[in-house]
Amino acid sequence: MYSKFLNLDSEKQDRIVNAAMKEFAQKGYDLASTNQIVKEAGISKGLLFHYFKNKKQLYLFLFDYCYSMIVGEFYHKVDLSEKDFFKRTSEAIMIKMELMTSYPDLFKFMEEALLEESLEVKAELEKKRKEFIDINMEKFFEGIDYTKFRDDVNLPIMLKIITFTFEKLSDETLFKAKLAPGHEINYEEVRLEAEEYLKVLKRSFYK
To answer: Is this structure's pTM higher than 0.90?
Structure first.
């Protein structure tokens, strides 16, 4: 679907991606202007729609592109040989904070996308978000040493409890951001809160 765009040289791809990411993050889907995107990227509007059929296709491509980049960087850094569930999870939180520092514009776009209310893209974004969570949770749990958990713990239910806890924490963070000026997220506050949850869950489920 995006072969014409992906066959471009990396410099031109980056110009288009960065221009689109900036416009969507600042104005949201409905108010974002493809005229501004092509002006910022230094290309014609006809060329943009040669690569992407319409604004919606560009937006959903950008969401997938940014998510793939984050996930790729994350799995490049995380130590999946660490078998302790809570150590691996704690490391994952720290890596996420590092990535947010290294790629602030990318994360700003992703934050705004997860807060997006436009009916034109909201359903697709929610579906993508759920699919990405399911896929990455399964991969993240691979190789964990489950013998450290209490013998009376039902592992599938326990993993669901932990997953639901952090999904709820994420949802609350996004809800607070939606109400805050500029949709800003205090990542250090989120990290500290997540670490507190991990301590409680570890005491509850480990031997």
So the answer is: no
